[in-house]
Amino acid sequence: MRRRLLLLLGCAILAPAAARAQDLADYDYTNLGFRGAGLTYGVIWPAKVQSTPTYGVRLDLGYLGPGVRIAPSITYWSSNFRESELARLADRLNRLPTLEEQGVRLTAADLRPMKWRDLALELDAHYVWTTPVGLLTYLGAGVAVHALNGEGEAIQDTFIEDLLDSFSAGLSAIGGVEYPVSDRFRLFGELRLAGLSDVQYAGLRIGGALMASGRTEVSARRGKQ
User: Fold this and answer.
1) Residue 173 pLDDT > 70, yes or no?
2) Res 158: pLDDT
3) Which end of the chain has fewer surrounding CB within 10 Å, N or C?
């Protein structure tokens, strides 16, 4: 998963440079500003916890340069740990001297249910271009801060709960399509690969965004939005 994520991140970063060479002077804050906001719904398939829905809010802050759009978002998900992860954790706990001395043997069932919650603040950069059929397409990369919170009746107020609670930096690779239904409303869908120190996952998101009026568009590749 990490190798695929790094490969896609490389493609997302190199694609704009390969598409056209841009002078650094083309990239400034002139066209940055609030352009719209939308809601997202998705599904992720994490490595350690069960697949689960995601809910989020995405902002459109305009263009840093030709075709390069900035889109921060906040995303939330919650999911139970997979049975295999609980079994692995139980095996590690059984090796602790304290439990060995008492003759205690834990199983996955003793730890169930255990849950992870994640609230992520993400900052994405999309390289956007148009298509002959009127769709906007984009590739991008993002950075994020994840606030992970572990919980469960069996681990409440223990060192295990403390270990599952963390703030982690993450990276993501993004590919998506966007359809301007009108000047004021857009539908979009995107595939994401995300990685952080504690968990990696692939995800799919769909959403709709209301656009502010009076915003100047910046040319995307092969035309204007």
Assistant:
1) yes
2) 85
3) N
Between CA 49 and CA 221 the distance in angstroms is: 39
Q: Quote the mean pLDDT of the chain.
A: 84
Q: Which of 169, 100, 172, 181 is nearest to 135 (CA)?
A: 181
Per this entry, what is the length of the chain?
A: 225
From the centroid of its chain, how far is CA 68? 18
> Is residue 12 helix, strand or coil?
helix
Q: By the 8 A CB rule, do 173 and 2 touch?
A: no
Helices (H) and strands (E) in the chain, counts: 5, 8
Q: Give dist(CA 161, CA 145) in Å, integer.
A: 20
Dihedrals phi, psi of 111, to nearest 5 degrees: -95, -20
For the chain, domains (ranges, CATH) are 2-78+115-211 (2.40.160.20)
